[in-house]
Amino acid sequence: MKKLNWIKLATVIFCGLIMAGSMFAATPTQTIKNANTKLASAVKAAKTDAAAIEAVSKVLASASDFSSMANSVTSSYCEKLTAKQCTEFNETFINLVKVSTASKLKGYKSEKISYTGEKIEGSTATVKTTVKSGDNTVNIDYILKKSGSNWLIINYVVEDINTVDNYKKQFKRLFKKNSFDEVMQNLNKRITKIKSGK
Predict the structure, then answer these.
(1) Strand, coil or helix: what is 154?
(2) Rounded distance, CA 128 to CA 115, Å?
(3) What is the mean pLDDT of residues 87-101?
(4) Which of 8, 74, 97, 186 has fewest C-beta within 10 Å?
(5) Percent of the chain with pLDDT over 90
């Protein structure tokens, strides 16, 4: 009888821990706030642009689902590529997004950010923000996807420019004029150029 009571008690405690974990899981807005705080700290600690890009890339990787973003952009092209080419395309694209975004954020400081709205639809959420730096104001919407108990960024819209859609348009132009190998060379050159700070 005592053994049964202990089993029941253990079950109650286990369920309670699960519920507590879900209660304290970050909301979509809190996820973006946490990422922005980490970005500011990463940039402040970095002593060179290269170090800043590397540090920001790590923060982005922990807050984003780059694989999902890559699939949204590359899936239509992968239908015409070999499995090996598709893997190379996805990995190169993810690398490009990481370093490109990190390069833009390497000078990030604790700008004044207003969190103006949050909308959750099933496993997808949109967090609206307004960033003010000096006299400039920029509207950035983050699109997130639920992954377990976490929310991860899968896209963002800056001043009505959809990042995923923008990359789709770029690749449409590139593949129209170039072979797969030429496109990969182009992307790798861009990545190297960004990393070098040129």
Answers:
(1) strand
(2) 6
(3) 89
(4) 8
(5) 36
Neighbours of 154 (CB within 10 A): 22
Residue 190: burial class (beta carbons within 10 Å; 0-12, 13-18, 19+)? middle
pLDDT at 110: 54
Q: Which domains does the chain have, with CATH numbers?
A: 25-196 (3.10.450.710)
Where do we find the tokens 């006299």? 135
Q: How confident is the model at residue 90 (pLDDT cuts 50, 70, 90)?
A: very high
Cβ 76 vs Cβ 90: under 8 Å: no
pLDDT of 106: 65
| Residue entry with tokens 């800043």 | 52
Q: Is 36 exposed, middle or buried (0-12, 13-18, 19+ CB in 10 A)?
A: buried
Alpha carbons 35 and 140: distance in angstroms, whole number: 14
- Could you write out the DSSP letters of every residue in 126-148? EEEEEEEETTEEEEEEEEEEEET
Q: How does the average pLDDT of the chain come out, rounded?
A: 81
Strand order in 161-162's β-sheet?
112-121, 124-133, 136-147, 150-158, 161-162
CA–CA separation, 90 vs 28, rounded Å? Answer: 26
Query: What pLDDT does residue 91 have?
Result: 93
